[in-house]
């Protein structure tokens, strides 16, 4: 063997190692985000301004909460299409409790906490219903959550007509609005909430028995059941968590818009699932992490913001978003096949 | 054992019973509902979802899913309105089918060659397809000429044109799935792709074909839909993919592949449309339409899942035979 061929071989194996390291990195999507950010910076220098960065962060927050809930469901190989309807339903129910225009508890000091409690209850109830149908009645998650999505999206609009003649319930109490826009120690309240949810979710997935069981159910349900995992309860828990997360996101969205509206979150369903999958969580279960979802959401919001700032037409925003989701999925597929070969 | 048989028979016929109940309820509430003219209307209104659902059935039978069909409908309709505005339907329909099939081949490339999950691929191409359509139309409303709009009222042998298209697509799909080798291969791949490959079936080819079929059906559905709507706004065919999946599942097609057929899908599409038509006729509050429709889909899926659970229990092999006390 000649020296040159050895050299090229060494170089190619070094190259391969590098490719492998990049592909298998946990932070692949984060690196892609940074790369993307640097790539668009020359075209839109405003991207690096504090204001825009703050906007990106605040756009991320509610989306991130729903996406974290969705991560739990995807880990057990389920899917939750009903999250957007939970956001809508929780928003109008919460608003109907606390609105100054004839809300159930208008003017009462308990109005704001009661409304928030009602919103979380809505999320938990719909999540519990999904979980019950899937685990006890043996129905496929896709269809169960598709029908709950159709039902509660319709129900949210119907519910609104009882409380107002317009399309949304406005005049929310000052206390609620302040809660959404205030800050503690210079950090916005919503960021605190999302941080708390994120850290809690990470601990549950990485450090608790429930977390282990969620992964086990997603990887191989039968094996999990044989090893004594209460499969039904674990899967139901994932849907409950998803419902609760969607309700928290609804509180954040409602606080930001200062109205309860049934069209809240109508268009973000595919963004949510897209973001989680871009992060690297598998649709077939057993694989997923909270940090991955954070990166996925960051990537998607970054692209959204930059495209808007570039002043691109609606068509390019749609098409580029689709291409990015596809690219992320292809990278993931390649990665999985590499992993299988080694 | 007999009670199990009875329960199975009941569950098997439950969707039909549901249909009869729907007919009876709306029939008693309004005498216009059970009119022949009204049934013709229902079939016409159901036709584009049924055609879309027939294409979707092929994909679902292989345990895939095609979320891009709504976008394909919009894209093919947009291309028709912009580039083939003067073409006759004889040319327009094949052209739209070709656009759809081409789009389906793109989906298939990612699903089959790169082995990306169908859900994600078609989710992405949904965005891309709608983006392309918005680009073609420059986000403006597209209007259509008389030779297309006149088809909405056109009849052949006394039967409206849309129903003919619907019937032809259904007949072709039914024959293909039930009486051709390709149809059997689709079921085999859906049942167990590895076993199908070992049996000598060209699995990639079968998978590629079903996505092309789904795209082509979406092209036809776009054409049928545009003759009725008359103009394509940027929200044209939005979320029709969910309606198509719902129709298939309502008709007993499994999302896990290998089970169901196009007859069920057509039944599902007609049932959904019957309910919506009935709600309009009895002057129901428009806000409860989605509530009723989704409840009916839910009940049908519930019944179907109970049936397959019983069947699964019956089919389970007893590996360990318990000793019974004498």
From TrEMBL, chain A:
It is a multi-pass membrane protein. InterPro entries: ABC_transp_permease (IPR001851). One of its GO terms (molecular function) is transmembrane transporter activity. Its main location: membrane. It is found in: Cell membrane. Keywords: Cell membrane, Membrane, Transmembrane, Transmembrane helix. The chain crosses the membrane at residues 21-41, 61-79, 86-106, 112-134, 141-159, 191-210, 231-251, 263-283, 290-307, 313-334. Coiled coil: none annotated. The keyword Transcription does not apply. Pfam families: BPD_transp_2. One of its GO terms (cellular component) is plasma membrane. This is Ribose ABC transporter permease. It comes from Skermanella aerolata.
UniProtKB/TrEMBL annotation, chain B:
It is a multi-pass membrane protein. The keyword Transmembrane helix applies. It holds the Pfam family BPD_transp_2. InterPro entries: ABC_transp_permease (IPR001851). Its main location: membrane. It is found in: Cell membrane. One of its GO terms (molecular function) is transmembrane transporter activity. The chain crosses the membrane at residues 12-30, 42-61, 67-84, 91-110, 116-136, 156-177, 210-230, 242-275, 287-303. One of its GO terms (cellular component) is plasma membrane. Keywords: Cell membrane, Membrane, Transmembrane, Transmembrane helix. Signal peptide: none annotated. This is Sugar ABC transporter permease.
């Amino acid at each position: 063997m000649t020296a040159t061929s050895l050299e090229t071989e060494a170089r190619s194996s070094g190259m391969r190692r590098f490719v492998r390291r990049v592909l298998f990195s946990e932070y692949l999507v984060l690196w892609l985000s940074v790369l993307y950010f640097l790539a668009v910076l020359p075209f839109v220098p405003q991207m690096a301004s504090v204001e825009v960065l703050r906007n990106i962060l605040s756009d991320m927050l509610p989306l991130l909460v729903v996406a974290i809930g969705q991560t739990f469901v995807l880990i057990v190989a389920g899917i939750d299409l009903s999250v957007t309807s939970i956001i809508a339903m929780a928003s109008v129910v919460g608003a109907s409790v606390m609105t100054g225009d004839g809300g159930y508890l208008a003017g009462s000091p308990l109005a704001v906490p009661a409304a928030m409690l009602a919103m979380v209850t809505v999320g938990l109830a719909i999540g519990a219903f999904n979980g019950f149908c899937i685990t006890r009645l043996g129905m496929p998650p896709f269809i169960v959550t598709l029908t709950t999505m159709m039902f509660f999206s319709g129900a949210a609009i119907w519910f609104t007509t009882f409380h107002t003649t317009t399309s949304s319930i406005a005049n929310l109490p000052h206390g609620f609005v302040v809660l959404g826009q205030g800050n503690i120690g210079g950090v916005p309240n919503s960021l605190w909430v999302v941080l708390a949810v994120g850290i809690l979710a990470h601990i549950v997935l990485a450090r608790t028995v429930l977390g282990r069981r969620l992964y086990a159910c997603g990887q191989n349900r039968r094996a999990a059941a044989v090893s004594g995992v209460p499969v039904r309860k674990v899967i139901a828990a994932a849907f409950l968590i998803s419902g609760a997360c969607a309700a928290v996101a609804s509180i954040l969205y409602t606080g930001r818009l200062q109205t309860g509206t049934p069209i809240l979150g109508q268009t973000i369903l595919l963004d949510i699932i897209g973001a989680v999958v871009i992060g690297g969580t598998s649709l077939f279960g057993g694989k997923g992490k909270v940090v991955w979802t954070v990166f996925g959401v960051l990537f998607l919001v970054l692209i959204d913001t930059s495209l808007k700032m570039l002043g691109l037409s609606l068509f390019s925003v749609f098409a580029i978003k689709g291409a990015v989701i596809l690219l992320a999925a292809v990278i993931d597929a390649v990665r999985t096949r590499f992993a299988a070969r080694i | 054992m007999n009670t199990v048989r009875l329960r199975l028979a009941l569950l098997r016929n439950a969707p039909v019973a549901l249909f009869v109940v729907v007919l009876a309820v709306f029939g008693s509430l309004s005498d216009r509902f059970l009119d022949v003219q009204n049934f013709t209307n229902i079939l016409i209104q159901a036709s584009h979802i049924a055609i879309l659902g027939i294409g979707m059935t092929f994909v679902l039978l292989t345990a895939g899913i095609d979320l891009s069909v709504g976008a394909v409908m919009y894209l093919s309709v947009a291309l028709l309105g912009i580039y083939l505005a003067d073409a006759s339907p004889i040319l327009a329909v094949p052209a739209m089918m070709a656009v759809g099939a081409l789009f389906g081949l793109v989906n298939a490339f990612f699903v089959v060659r790169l082995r990306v999950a169908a859900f994600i691929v078609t989710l992405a191409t949904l965005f891309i397809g709608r983006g392309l359509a918005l680009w073609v139309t420059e986000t403006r409303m597209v209007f259509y000429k008389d030779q297309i709009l006149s088809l909405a009222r056109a009849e052949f042998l006394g039967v409206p044109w849309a129903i003919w298209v619907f019937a032809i697509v259904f007949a072709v799909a039914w024959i293909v799935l039930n009486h051709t080798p390709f149809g059997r291969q689709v079921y085999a791949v859906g049942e167990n792709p590895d076993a199908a490959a070992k049996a000598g079936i060209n699995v990639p080819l079968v998978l590629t074909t079903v996505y092309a079929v789904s795209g082509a059906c979406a092209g036809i559905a776009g054409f049928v839909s545009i003759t009725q709507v008359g103009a394509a706004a940027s929200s044209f065919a939005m979320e029709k993919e969910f309606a198509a999946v719902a129709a298939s599942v309502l008709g007993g097609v499994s999302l896990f592949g290998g089970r169901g057929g196009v007859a069920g899908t057509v039944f599902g599409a007609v049932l959904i449309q019957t309910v919506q038509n009935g709600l309009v006729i009895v002057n129901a509050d428009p806000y409860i339409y989605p509530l009723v429709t989704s409840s009916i889909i839910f009940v049908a899926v519930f019944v179907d899942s109970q049936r397959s659970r019983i069947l699964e229990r019956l089919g389970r092999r007893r590996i360990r035979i318990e000793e019974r006390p004498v």
